[in-house]
Specification:
CATH superfamily of the largest domain in chain A: Phosphoenolpyruvate-binding domains
Distance between the termini of chain A: 56 Å
Largest sheet of chain A: 8 strands, mixed
Largest sheet of chain B: 4 strands, antiparallel
CATH topology of the largest domain in chain A: TIM Barrel
Distance between the termini of chain B: 23 Å
Number of strands of chain B: 4
Number of helices of chain A: 22
Oligomer: heterodimer
Structural class of chain B: alpha+beta
Shape of chain B: globular
CATH architecture of the largest domain in chain A: Alpha-Beta Barrel
Radius of gyration of chain B: 11 Å
Largest interface: A-B, 20 and 19 residues
Radius of gyration of chain A: 30 Å
Number of domains of chain B: 1
Strand order of the largest sheet of chain A: 1-8-7-3-4-5-6-2
Helix content of chain B: 40-55%
Shape of chain A: elongated
Chain lengths: ~550, ~80
């Protein structure tokens, strides 16, 4: 058993036998020719053939990976017709009286080098495209067919694969491919993702370690490759693959479907995220929006207070990526178990009951205002909601609303754009907030129940203390009654109510939450479709 | 001769796809079009040359249009840049 690692560029696990891809030797010899006109004609004929082949590949790609993935082959055709490229080839044939194959090979080297020397990693990766079209030309000139892989259900191992080779692969036979070279920017990697073939690139020592027929496990997510695994490792991988496939199946069946019960009640299912990096997962799992974006990471990952501009850029990016879907950003929730040194917070006996979240913001309004300015500025780029954590009183909410109004006025005066309407909401995560929810609801647009803290404060159970687990009953009637009470008061005051704590993903409570009238459930991206599945199986009329 | 300047807004700049679109667009026009970036210039009907300029987001490029239909061509190109880059 041997382990190698590369860069996983396309997901899923594949298990199968290796097939080492031997590219036919495209080496070209320099031959003196006498009939220059005939040689140029030969080149033109080969070019027409190559363009016809590319057109066929384009059509295949269009069917298998869609238009955006197929476009590269249109570009390849255009590259073949590029004036400079053609002039270089014809110029060499004329001036040196050499064969077309040689002229193409030299030209390919020059153009590939031009790209390889550019600063931009994307442009560097274009060198592979130049080589791909040039090899095709040379093969047409010499009457060789472009090499294709053969064999059944195999894991293809190669030094590198050109985009046209990738698309020409028979998807029903290639389980995965692994290469020594390549970049994640390469069209090959992009095509692999579009074709849904697991792929790992940049695996050093691949071709010296693997031979035809070897058993292999390829993990396209982690980039791990195991050659000739032992039985236990193989079983483990099969199990992972099975679980993975099940998840994919669910994804396939539930993507694009509504979150609606059998009797027609619908609920929003949003995702919780803690960083911009998670947006891909949110979209991949088809969440209807972001119900909780924890802004703390901006503060925790920084050595000093993040400035307005820095925050603005992050919020704007999230809003733009979600393209008009709801994005609820929670203002900073530092303190308790989340500490940043530069805040200089005093050591506390009971940090969970201490200086945290909105309490810091109201004590040090300059930090709060910076965040609010960044949020309002970003509001112009999507559908933003702002949510405030750790609320216990109407006074706090009134003070927050005054500050928000001030900030909007400041932006207005400075002629800075912000959205006409940004929903403002509060977290219901203290028993106090739930109990006076009838007074809080008229002040805000929405509630979001933070079940983790609400449970800890209601049951007086420190959630960081594992010894208390048996006392910390997350389904405790007291907690559920508080949620139901808050829901009733929200609706009586035209506010909506969501749940963004871990309990939202607990499918044994989904029916209870829907019966309470909960409008939105916000869960980790990977739980979105599981929850959708649960909702679609419920019938509240029974 | 008509010239105008344009600052690239697209995240990835003039990469392969928009370069291909640009070249097809320019080839359909009757005028000759040159793109200039930081002293380097390239004919906009040549794909490799356009890609070789390495135009990235934030770069300001100068576009020169010369020929019989230069007025309409320049307007069309300006719209093309706004829409694609």
């Amino acid at each position: 058993m041997q382990k190698l690692t590369g860069k996983g560029v396309s997901g899923a696990i594949a298990i199968g036998q290796a097939s080492v891809f031997q590219r036919r030797d495209a080496r070209v010899t320099r031959v003196k020719i006498t009939d220059i006109a005939a040689e140029k004609e030969r080149f033109e004929a080969a070019k027409a053939e190559a363009i016809a082949e590319l057109d066929a590949i384009y059509q295949k790609a269009l069917r298998e990976v869609g238009e955006s993935g197929a476009q590269i082959f249109e570009i390849h055709s255009m590259m073949l017709e590029d004036d400079d490229y053609n002039e270089s080839i014809c110029g060499l044939i004329e001036s040196q009286a050499v064969n077309a194959e040689y002229a193409v090979a030299v030209t390919a080297d020059n153009f590939a080098e031009m790209f390889a020397a550019m600063d931009d990693s994307y442009m560097q990766a274009r060198a592979a495209d130049v080589r791909d079209i040039s090899n095709r030309l040379i093969n047409c000139l010499s009457g060789r067919k472009q090499a294709g892989a053969s064999g059944d259900s195999m894991i293809l191992c190669a030094d590198d694969l050109a985009p046209s080779e990738t698309v020409s692969l028979d998807k029903s036979r290639v389980l995965a491919f692994v290469t020594t070279h390549g970049s994640s920017n390469s069209h090959t990697a992009i095509l692999a993702r579009n074709m849904n073939i697991p792929a790992v690139i940049g695996v050093d020592g691949l071709l010296t370690s693997v031979k035809d027929g070897d058993m292999m496990i390829v993990n396209g997510c982690t980039g791990e490759i195991i050659i000739n695994p032992d039985e236990a490792t193989l079983d483990d991988a099969r199990e992972k693959q099975r679980a993975d496939q099940e998840k994919r199946q669910l994804l396939q069946n539930l993507r694009g479907k509504d979150n609606v019960t059998l009797d027609g009640r619908s609920v929003n299912i949003y995702a919780n995220i803690g960083s911009v990096d998670n947006i891909g997962e949110v979209l991949a799992n088809d969440a209807g929006g972001i119900g909780l974006f924890r802004s703390e990471f901006l503060y925790l990952e920084s050595d000093d207070y993040p400035d307005e501009e820095q925050q603005f850029r992050v919020y704007k990016k999230v809003l733009e990526s979600m393209a008009g879907k709801k994005v609820i950003i929670r203002t900073l929730d530092i303190g308790a178990d989340k500490q940043a040194d530069y805040f200089g917070l005093a050591k506390e006996e009971n940090p969970a009951l201490g200086m945290r979240a909105i309490r810091i913001c109201l004590t040090r309004p300059e930090i709060f205002r910076t965040q609010l300015r960044a949020l309002y500025r970003a509001s112009a780029y999507g559908n933003l909601g702002i949510m405030f954590p750790m609320i216990t009183s109407t006074d706090e909410v009134e003070e927050i609303l005054r500050i928000c109004k001030d900030v909007r006025q400041e932006l207005e005066d400075a002629g800075i754009e912000y959205a006409d309407r940004t929903e403002l909401g509060i977290m219901v995560e203290t028993p106090a907030a739930a109990i006076i929810s009838d007074r809080l609801a008229p002040l805000v647009d929405f509630f979001s129940v933070g079940t983790n803290d609400l449970t800890q404060y209601t049951l007086a159970c420190d959630r960081q203390n594992p010894a208390l687990e048996r006392f910390c009953d997350t389904h405790h009637e007291a907690v559920l009654r508080l949620i139901e009470f808050a829901a009733k008061n929200a609706h009586a005051n035209n506010a909506w109510i969501g749940i963004c704590g871990e309990l939202a993903a607990d499918t044994s409570l989904t029916e209870a939450f829907l019966r309470m009238g909960i409008d939105e459930l916000s869960v980790s991206p990977s739980s979105v479709l599981k929850l959708r599945d649960a909702v679609r199986k419920l019938d509240l009329s029974k | 001769m008509k010239t105008f300047e344009y600052t690239i807004k697209d995240e990835v700049g003039i990469h392969a796809r928009p370069a291909g679109l640009l070249v097809s667009k320019v080839k359909a026009l009757g005028s000759s079009v040159t793109i200039e970036k930081g002293g380097k210039s390239a004919s906009a009907s040549k794909l490799f040359a356009v890609m070789g300029l390495g135009v990235v987001k934030g770069d300001t490029i100068k576009i020169t249009v010369e020929g019989g239909d230069e007025d309409t061509a320049a307007t069309e190109l300006q719209a093309f840049f706004e829409a694609n880059l």
